[in-house]
């Protein structure tokens, strides 16, 4: 069963209706994709992540990593000029893995070691969205603040 009733969530929030589309697309991706190649997602602290994909048999030339509109896509394509094997236990099929990144998550870089492709990510929240402490002014500092604020309000209102 792949349906979720998010109605209780929507009753107490505004502007999150796009989440239903995200959940639906993630469920559809999961239905059509297989388990190749296997991957891990590591959390390296509060705002750092690493995606690891087991890509044995693939060179850097056979892999591509793209980020488009918040969707990270890793794909691999093998050349057709491979030798004939009596037994081939290492998968050589082409693949495509997609990951939807949260807002403000950016790709820092990628590298490969021992057949593991690592993609490093970081959540970088803009300064204006970070929590900040508001100083409480008193006495003459508060009066000066009120004078400055009232001039600012008058300019904004007259526009």
Question: What name is given to the CATH topology of the largest domain?
Answer: Immunoglobulin-like
Mean pLDDT: 81
Number of strands: 7
Strand adjacency order, main sheet: 1-2-7-6
CATH architecture classification name of the largest domain: Sandwich
Task: From the alpha carbons, calculate the radius of gyration and give it in angstroms.
Answer: 25 Å
**Assembly state:** single chain
| Shape, principal axes of CA atoms | elongated
**According to CATH, what is the class of the largest domain?**
Mainly Beta
| SSE run | HHEEEEEEEH
What is the helix content? 25-40%
Number of helices: 3
Ends distance: 55 Å
Q: What is the element layout, followed by pairings?
A:
Elements: H1 7-11, H2 18-32, E1 39-43, E2 48-54, E3 63-68, E4 71-76, E5 95-100, E6 105-113, E7 116-123, H3 139-158
